[in-house]
Amino acid sequence: MTGSVRLPGSKSISNRILLLAAMALGDTRIEGLLDADDVDRMVEALHALGISLQRVEEQGVTIVHGAAGAFPVKHAALLLGNAGTAFRPLTAALAFCGGNYQLSGVQRMHERPIADLVDALRKLGADIRYTGREGYPPLTIGPGVMRPGNEVASPIAIRGDVSSQFVSALLMSLPLAAANVTVEVTGELISKPYVEITLNLMQRFGVDVERHGWSHFRIPAHARYVSPGSMVVEGDASSASYFLAAGAVAGGPVRVIGVGTRSIQGDVRFADILTAMGASVESGEDWIEVRRSGPLKGIDADFNMIPDAAMTAAVVALFAEGPTTLRNIASWRVKETDRIAAMATELSKLGAVVEQGPDWLRIVPPVKLRAATIDTYDDHRMAMCFSLAALGGVAVRINDPQCVSKTFPDYFAAFGKLAA
To answer: Structurally, what CATH architecture does the domain formed by 237-419 represent?
Structure first.
């Protein structure tokens, strides 16, 4: 397998920029926005909230007309599918908008916890109610929230060890409070690079967050979002992991275009994992290239920083000499599916011996891969990472391949082109 792939836009960056642009003063011209289900859910929600968006298809540009912090529509029911990067930030932003809103999603979204974010917002005076199971969506948001200009006397505590999206959502919403607010993250903050993306983009929109390590963040009362005029969405580093892994497994070289040494995404560090497993990696400002330079070897590593790309490493482990242990991946339990359980089940089908714990997975590769039919659990990353198993020379059937539309609708066409 050899060739190059131009990556689709980052989901994490796309949905953050869309929301920040909607809350900002002025118009924002966005290039390279991801065209996939999760971003469609955010776009639909912003339309429903009265935000004007224009897509210039021939230029690949979306123009967002910002509302300067006040969504025009004060009553709306938003259907957000299984898009966590839309559901969590919109929950926080709408808590400051003085309206009445209902937020719901697919059944799996209603099984993904949100209590840590809701509890933090309630400390600020938000009126948020659970309309189903306590601690989980769907939600109803009322107009009650702290009055702008108030000083928040004590830090607003929020757990950091369940999902970094809670911290990102809270930080992005706080400029709407027009108050001095300090956020205290309790426990270890997982997926720190995703919070780094949030802080980077907030700064691009004119809000500098004062920080003390990863435990305290302060948003001053004068903070306001102002459009930078134009933004470019870099390629999706999580999606890059599948093609980089293909280069390591099948020989390569395989080059991804759209991420590189200038990337603000933590998942570019997946290239370091492949290096540790024995692959050869080169990179430039907006590209990374991987080839196999010898046998791959199993590793024992902490994946707290790159939990999404860790799934790809679990499948690469099938082709390595010796066991591979993935540690600090508890966040897998509350993703699109329980990814620790799902990965253990599907890797076993291919002949691996798999052990799992609350926050770890250990894979002993088989002497020879077995043909298998892989269930995807309506999880786009399950479908994409297990496509790599076909590089082992056995028949691999992927059930419900259309689930990749969440972030990469053309994934299998891109993968097939490289394989050919």
So the answer is: Alpha-beta prism (3.65)
Chain centroid to CA 34: how far? 13
- Which residues, in sequence order, are CB contacts of 213 under 8 Å at separation 6+? none
Residue type (1 letter), 309: A
Residue 145 confidence (pLDDT): 63
Q: Give the catalytic positions in this structure.
A: 308
Distance CA 178, CA 219 (A): 9
Query: Residues 344-403: pLDDT tens digits?
Result: 999 999 999 999 999 999 999 999 999 999 999 999 999 999 999 999 999 999 999 999
Q: Which residues of the chain have pLDDT under 70?
A: 145-153
Model pTM score: 0.93
The correct answer on CATH 3.30.56.10 for the domain covering 11-215 is: no
> In whole angstroms, what separates CA 198 from the centre of its chain?
11
Q: Where are the domains of the chain?
A: 11-215, 237-419
Residue 234: C-alpha distances to residues 5, 82, 349 (Å): 14, 23, 35
Enumerate the β-bridge partners of residue 101: 76, 141
Q: Provide the token pair at 159.
A: 């757990």
Q: What does the DSSP assignment read for 292-339?
A: E-S--B--EEE-TT-HHHHHHHHHHGGGSBS-EEEES-GGGGGSSS-H
Q: Give me the pLDDT at residue 419, please.
A: 85
